[in-house]
Here is the input.
Amino acid sequence: MNKLILKKEEVQQKINSNSLMNKNNFGNAIIIKVRINNKLSENYFKFLHIEYINPSEIDVFVNGIRFKIDDSYWLRFSPKKTGLYTILILFNTKITNCKSLFSDCNKITEIDLSFFNSENVTSMEEMFYYCKSLLKINLSSFCTKNVTKMNSMFYNCENLKELNLSSFDTHNVEDMAQMFKNCENLKELDLSSFDTHNVKKMNEIFNSCCSLVNLNLSSFNYDKIQDLESIFDHCYNLGKIKINKNSEKIRKLVNENFIKLEDN
Here is the structure.
């Protein structure tokens, strides 16, 4: 089955709710999980930034109950008790801008984007910015072929330990600055599928990834890069980087940070 076409029975099973049976087809959806273990000091949690989305284009269900959408920049939910909250967001159209979509949603623990149709999206700037509680992101069917901006995309996802970006198509991306900055618990990043021949900004892309041990940059092209400042700063545990033989721009920076090189 095409993962972008999510049947109602499968959504039903995922969120354990009987209130969504009237939906015929969920072809474009995001599933979010938030675990509230303690009383919130703000009395609410934010789960979606809709400054760049028309509220009429989405339907939202929290634990199977329809959520009333207001016109604010944020969708916020006030939990009545601790526990797991599952949020289903249904898109009635293809979204073109994911800028700051989950930015500052610092209580979210899991995001499933495997059913989200992102083929028209051009910006993912700050998409997961400051999602500091995020433990898991499913990007297995995530289309990025038209994206030009990925700067600060995972900035300060400090509890994220794994990140599979093998589905990413980056051939149109021009800005990757601070893309993984402050991902303090990431131990390994395999970016060998990345095409960076159009990237101009890459400054601080790995800055403060202090748990990062291995990094595969063997596919990276730096011909158009204008800024590589501080890309390895505070990467205290980074022991080995795989690069291609034509990466002279990055080779100097690696040597300055006393990191072992492995030529592809």
